[in-house]
Here is the input.
Amino acid sequence: MLRPNQFRANEAWIAFQLNGAPIDTETDGSFNCFALMDAASCLILCSELFPATAAEPSKGEVRRLLKQASAHKGELPVKLFVPVGQFATILPAEARRQGLTVVRASEDELALFIGEARTGFEEYVSGKRCGNLSPNG
Here is the structure.
C-alpha cells in the first residue's frame, strides 16, 4: 500500500473522482467531481465538476486543472497516480504530453490518500455538518 511518507512534496499527485455518486442539480444535470491531490501532503490542489455523462474531464479541463494545480509549487510533479478504471484516455495522454509519468494504481492502494477526502466531500454534498466547515456553525 502506498503511504504519504513515501513521497516528497510535489513529487507525485493523485487524480481521482471525489464523489461516489453523481451530484444532481435541478437546472444543469448531474456532475462528477475530479480532484488532484499532492501525495505527500494529501492536500487537494484543485477540483472541477464535469458532466456525469462524460467518462472524464475534457482535454481543456484537464489542461486547466494541471495548470491550476501546478501553481502551488510552480511546477508539475514527476508522477501522476490514476485509479484503475478511471480517466482512461484524456487525462493520461495530456499528463504524458506534459512530461509526467502516469502510474495506474488500484483504489485499495490509494485508499489511505483519498478515503478521508471522499468522506468529507460526501458529508458536505449531503448537507451534514463537517466540524467548522458548516456555514451555520
Summary: The domain at 4-133 is CATH 3.30.420.10 (Nucleotidyltransferase; domain 5).
